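User: Structure please.
Assistant: Input sequence and predicted structure:
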Amino acid sequence: MAKYTGPRCKLCRRQGVKLFLKGDRCYTPKCAMEPNRRPYPPGLKTRRRRKVSDYALQLQEKQKVRRIFGVLERQFRRNFAAAERRPGATGENLLRILEMRLDNVVYRLGFADSRSQARQLINHGHFAVDGRRTNVSSYEIRVNQVIAVRPESMRLEYFQTLSKEIGRKSIPAWLSLDTAALVGKVLAAPNREDLDPNINEPLIVEYYSR
């Protein structure tokens, strides 16, 4: 499957906001979006203020969400089509679909420091969903499903260390976590207040409604 392999900090600079694509580094002074670093778009030699069109705002919002969740354009478009078919607000449905991806749930549970790391762990077969080994990052988790680190993987140094530190991490209210067994469960589908408040999903709907 195709994936983005370029510099992740460049994506944050292009969007002008932190996308938290590099885990703990995003919370340190080394983050490219810190004021003393380069919090301006890459490739520009000047910092002139330019008027931004409505289309540009819609495109930027769509690209921002796509980059946050690490989804390529074709898959993002399929997710949007699925969101349109579901009852309710299309924008919220889209964000809910993205939040319920296995890689995002693994990240939200604190099993990984970033979504890209979560995808790598999933691809290596370290997780089971309802007791079945699952290595598809885009698998859509349903309410009441259980995500657990496989017993074979618990012996690895990474998960041994994680079991000692994961208790310090906070998780969303729509998830539950057994820190001792490294087992998580989806209690409910996330509501809009549980989703990222910095995302303006109506702009994405407007982009695809052109």
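The beta strands are 127-129, 132-133, 146-149, 175-178, 183-186.
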